[in-house]
Amino acid sequence: MRVSQFFLSTLKEAPTEAELVSHKLMLRAGLIKRLGSGLYSWMPLGLKVLRKVENIVREEMDRAGAIELLMPAVIPAELWQETGRWDVFGPQMLKIRDRHEREFCFGPTHEEVITDVARREIKSYRQLPINFYQIQTKFRDEIRPRFGVMRAREFVMKDSYSFHADRASLEQTYEVMYQTYSRIFTRLGLKFRAVAADTGAIGGSGSHEFHVLADSGEDAIAFCPSSDYAANVELAEAVSPSAPRPAPTQPMQKISTPGKHSIEQVCEYLKVPAEKTVKTLLVEGRDGGVVALLLRGDHELNEVKAGKLLQLPEAVRFASDAQILAAAGCRAGSLGPVGLNIPIIADRSVAVMSDFVCGANEDGYHLTGVNFVRDLPELKEVVDIRNAVEGDPSPDGKGILELCRGIEVGHIFQLGNKYSSAMNATFLDESGKDRVMEMGCYGIGVSRIVAAAIEQNHDARGIIWPPSIAPYELAIVPIGMGRSELVKDTVNKLYADLKAAGIEVLLDDRDERPGVMFADMELVGIPHRIVVGERGLKEGNLEYQGRRDEKAQAIALNSVLEFVQSKLCED
Amino acid sequence: MRVSQFFLSTLKEAPTEAELVSHKLMLRAGLIKRLGSGLYSWMPLGLKVLRKVENIVREEMDRAGAIELLMPAVIPAELWQETGRWDVFGPQMLKIRDRHEREFCFGPTHEEVITDVARREIKSYRQLPINFYQIQTKFRDEIRPRFGVMRAREFVMKDSYSFHADRASLEQTYEVMYQTYSRIFTRLGLKFRAVAADTGAIGGSGSHEFHVLADSGEDAIAFCPSSDYAANVELAEAVSPSAPRPAPTQPMQKISTPGKHSIEQVCEYLKVPAEKTVKTLLVEGRDGGVVALLLRGDHELNEVKAGKLLQLPEAVRFASDAQILAAAGCRAGSLGPVGLNIPIIADRSVAVMSDFVCGANEDGYHLTGVNFVRDLPELKEVVDIRNAVEGDPSPDGKGILELCRGIEVGHIFQLGNKYSSAMNATFLDESGKDRVMEMGCYGIGVSRIVAAAIEQNHDARGIIWPPSIAPYELAIVPIGMGRSELVKDTVNKLYADLKAAGIEVLLDDRDERPGVMFADMELVGIPHRIVVGERGLKEGNLEYQGRRDEKAQAIALNSVLEFVQSKLCED
């Protein structure tokens, strides 16, 4: 494509509204234009990237045997009422009334629609399993849309839904989708991790999130660099320390700690590291009574784990000041396990501690040199109730955990029969009995991937596209095309030759100043660049620079095609 | 694709809701499934056709230098308020309120959005002309959605919008789009006509509609089979008869015609053909007075032409009984031009009549043998105010008009500056002056084309796809695949060979009864079919039948690939 016949619209400065690097660069490179809050037009250059992402997703879904269809964006309320989600989905669902005052929504997801299709179309076990997918514009009315297409209201999603005769078949397709997603993100050229995830609002059990790793990610991920273990920090297991509990060496002492309530204050005052302290948290148990949770001073309570352990229906509730006073005779800042007459649950790390510091259950006092068995009863309940931290052993035993941040771009779920039973999606099994189908669902945030790719791949000069989704593979920048017939003729021939070889070339034929053209080609992130200037040509040379290269190199004009092809093969 | 791994879902009977052939066949062939009123899911087989249409449209738009982008489906009300269309678009526009009670609509068309893009992006004449397009899901809240995807509420459209420095540039791009649309519909394999059209609601001037010819079409078209002339019947010129007015041969006589008011009644009573009668219609002129319009008895008034002629702001209004009585002294059924003392406007066909019959301006009487000049003054105003009819000379002088019906699938407009001036979309011209851009817009009903193609191409057994948009090019139907190893092996090898040759093959490996498989492949409209049976194989033969062929023919197994390729080349 010649720039003069295309539409390139770059900006020197990003609009002030943009906070995230990807948002700034997408606006500056002219990939998107804002129409309204959370609403963006995909400009020609941006659409090229979006379509490349779409195509890779489509090819891999097809390869996995999934079958593409296209459901309406506008969905009647009745379907959502069958599953009860019309009322519980909340204001993220954009509700609509038509001219006859009938209710609809702009589909934020399509479980109900596809389950309706399945219950009408699938009669027999012989039609199962089947996996339908679509690539479609969806809408979620985010309360605070921001970060450009990263959290837009209107967005493009690949959503697929599989139907099965039994759980084993669901698990098989789930595994195929896991592998397919891994292949998709690998082909997209992104560093990613599949992390075990909690199932969240869609419901069901068994799910992985696919995260593109980037410092700006909203989610904290614990992963093992020497294996494929990865989990949301909230779900990563903190395994038991392998070393046994050391024997006591200090006597227990009660020490005045006036005004020292936090672990930090106590550590500073007593000159002990936080790892040598025990933090005691009182929470409400399932029966309304109070339970003590013990954590090492430098660890954080994982409320999801604690909630599951205590079998709480909702979130963990911390005890009130009055409950604490009644249970321990002091305020929260002086709590400790010694002499405490309520159920005690300890984190695994606490169980191997000795000579530790904790509150004395008396305002203004702490205990030092505390030891289990000697100073307080041996722990009865030792469990995992903390967040994993950097340096923890990986739960798969294959290394040490690191923490990073990720942008969620894919999610796969084993839904089970949540939707199929609510909507009575049944089939006749081999013995002629009516049975409810099992379902899986698998989403990819197609438009979000474009932003995530930039978060992971950019520098001060702009975007550095992974080659598989670059809008063009190669930029040709002629110097003085308007002045030099030699440059002009060379460039036109080169452009024709490279195009004929099937290479996607962007020829900057604007005859702008070189600095302007270089800056634009770098900003929009074309992976390879060839500069054609009269001086080099006279020596039979062009100049090549990869987007990540620090310096340009001279290449011979007569071998340029081979050179470019070998560079593209390296990608 | 193997049917066992695809999703084929055909019906014996179409649901009773379907009236139109295309709607029935799309449901029976399982191309679409109804979700709600005017809302359809595109099932896998239907989506394949839709995507083929999309791709042809995209390729030809790209070839024409148009640039693809993608605007949001959800559009803020403010933009529509700038052009005033928020209030005048009417209930076809699906209006939406978001969680903050801000108003939006599900875009029925995108003039406002693209004009907003243009006014922000285009600063200089050097950026003009430019032609943007998108292929997108749109929504129009039809009062009575029907005919399946022919008049659905949610539909896929290609809409493009061009911007220009001046009218000449607009006309140039308009011509390019005219040629591009012709190429698109030719490649789609459809019989179509580009007809000069009135500009309707979108406004502006200079427009053509592209119609797929089909008996069920909603629009009547006059076209010349020996040239490319075509027009909406309402707009087709009825040219002047070439023969001169014959000399009078009869005396004028007043004849009693009791109770005979209509042309039909009078003709029957007097035993004269309608072509020998003159119909007199009184309508209100611009100043409120009454004007007489003369038409040949077998012709119909064209109200659009009459309205323009009389420079009426709205529709033609016929005179009331009281106005008729005051002007002519009789009721409507006895009106005639003789002795009539109001302005008279005659259709061109009337001007060459002699010895004609007309009302006598006296209830219950008609005149026969009437002649201009002799019995009433020569006509002063002779114009075209009738609908063209079959057999009229073509206005381009190249033949005789025929009438047919068409389905509108494309529309191109010269919008002028209607939107650009309302939204202040200006650019700096070569002399540095601010000027308003000229605009064109060009739509194609992508999803409607699928239905229109079926209306034009079907028989009693089902759909007959034009090859360029068939979901698969060739069906292989094995007979007794489960019983015969020979059939199975041959079919699998054939399938692999044809696929390797780049042919899109659907292999019906369901091992159903032959009748079921034949009926399905015919219903879904695969253009070419090969039947593989043991009996034929033993003689080294397969059976081939084209979807339009009356009979099958034997072909040699060892030359099947060449045979199929030559058949595909004929398409």
From TrEMBL, chains A, B:
Keywords: Aminoacyl-tRNA synthetase, ATP-binding, Cytoplasm, Ligase, Nucleotide-binding, Protein biosynthesis. GO terms for cellular component: cytosol. Consists of three domains: the N-terminal catalytic domain, the editing domain and the C-terminal anticodon-binding domain. The gene is proS. GO terms for molecular function: aminoacyl-tRNA deacylase activity; ATP binding; proline-tRNA ligase activity. Belongs to the class-II aminoacyl-tRNA synthetase family. ProS type 1 subfamily. PANTHER family: MITOCHONDRIAL RIBOSOME PROTEIN L39/PROLYL-TRNA LIGASE FAMILY MEMBER, PROLINE--TRNA LIGASE. It is an enzyme of class 6 (ligase). It is found in: Cytoplasm. Homodimer. Residues 33-466 form the Aminoacyl-transfer RNA synthetases class-II family profile domain. This is Proline--tRNA ligase. SUPFAM superfamilies: Class II aaRS ABD-related, Class II aaRS and biotin synthetases, YbaK/ProRS associated domain. Its EC number is 6.1.1.15. It comes from Sulfurimicrobium lacus. GO terms for biological process: prolyl-tRNA aminoacylation.
